[in-house]
Amino acid sequence: MLTALRSPFLDLDILPRHALLFDAQGRYYSRTNVYSYSAELGNGLLHVEENLPWVNPFRNAFDWLAGEEKSAYPSNALTFWLGLDAQYMLVARSLVPIVVTPFGLPTGTAAGIIGAGLALITILIFHREVLPLKKFAALVEKIDPAGETIEFPKFRSATSEIRSLRNAFLRLQSRLQTLTRTRMALIGGIQHDIRSFATRLRLRLEALPDELERERAIADINDMIVLLDDALLAAQAGFGSLDQQIVDVDEWLGGEVRDLQSVGFQVRLESRTESEAIQVLADRVALRRVLVNLVENAIKYGVKCRVSLAREEDFAVITVDDWGPGFNGPSAGLLLEPFVRAEISRARTTGGAGLGLAIASSLAEAHGGSIDLGNHPEGGRVSLRLPAFDE
Q: What's the CA gap between 182 and 190, in Å, rounded?
């Protein structure tokens, strides 16, 4: 029977009672815990020998990390002597090494605690280094080349690379603002001087005896002044702060279309079937310029136009349809660039200077929106997409 019960993990023997001998087995601690085990094994328990080495968990953990070899632990960690009768006893030996710390924990616990601590320290250091990058990214989004200087914070704990990145952002911001100021000053100076020359030239032309030639010359000068104003606006669009406010697009669009109709534009507003109000955060003056440019462009090429409003997900979409040739080919997107025209003759009577859509696109982007060019079954379609404002 004992042979059947024996296993690689348990050794059983029946010995005479006078064989009850035990010792400390060298450096391992041995003590009798008869009373503590008697609660489970009963009065038949004669003796218990525990060969459980008490180790320093932190010292062993560092020894393990250093790759030092450790001595083997005893295979007979627990031995029980159980009385069978007055002459014989059963000796049960555990053949599996049991190693614990003075705290009653496995020796690998110390290494695990140290590893977890090192991982936590690594995460904290990584978070400390990443936090400045997140703040830098948020501040870069706020940089306005024509506005106030954004001050980047200093981080005492940041590495030299983070400090170098901060200084690079400051230099970049300074160069952008210098370039923008120079650009605006140059364009403004040119506009002022040319307007002055054009005004003096128009005064001289008014003295021409031929009325027809005089009117043509004055019209050309007026067109030149308008072109200069549009070029300056195209250069300034998207720079500087906008006087943004909450705009009810339904109400605003109805008033703007009525104003355009009153000055002779063939434009009509298609009523919405949805009752939900659509609001955007926008500059009314800039938004009016966008709408006027889109309507003027539609009427130049399509005689009349239709304006409609809809909500698509998180955007308010103002659509301007015309009955002209539409937008053809992949090069249609180039029409949003300054001085690019769909009408290749370059005649001012058949089209503008190619700045209307460019100005509208720049102002839309300054509001976080966009201009999309497309077609409907009877002509061209321009869609103004603006982020909807939900309270």
A: 12
Angle at 330 between CA 329 and CA 334, to 5 degrees: 110
Domain of 185, in residue numbers = 160-236
Do 324 and 302 touch, CB atoms closer than 8 A? yes
pTM: 0.53
Residue-level pLDDT at 32: 47
**14, 68: one domain:** yes
Claim to verify: residue 260 and residue 370 sit in the same structural domain: yes
d(CA 234, CA 224): 15
Domain match, 213 and 334 both: no
Q: Of the candidates 376, 303, 379, 297, which has an alpha carbon nearest to the alpha carbon of residue 342? A: 297
Give me 373's structure tokens. 């060019």
Nearest residue to 380 via CA among 273, 300, 312: 300
Measured CA to CA, the distance from residue 55 to residue 69 in angstroms comes to: 15
51 band by pLDDT with thresholds 50, 70 and 90: low
Same domain membership, residue 287 and residue 258: yes
b/e per residue 12-27 (b: at least 16 CB within 10 A): eeeeeeeeeeeeeeee
121-168 residue pLDDT tens: 988 888 777 777 778 888 887 777 766 777 777 776 667 777 788 888
Q: CA 51, CA 74: separation in Å to the nearest integer?
A: 7
Nearest C-alpha neighbor of 48 from the set 31, 62, 64: 31
The tokens describing 301, both together, are 């090429």
Q: Which residue has the tokens 């650009």?
A: 183
Determine the pLDDT at residue 97: 58
CB 315, CB 386: distance < 8 Å: yes
In order of 147, 184, 187, 222, the CA distances from 180 in angstroms are 10, 6, 11, 28
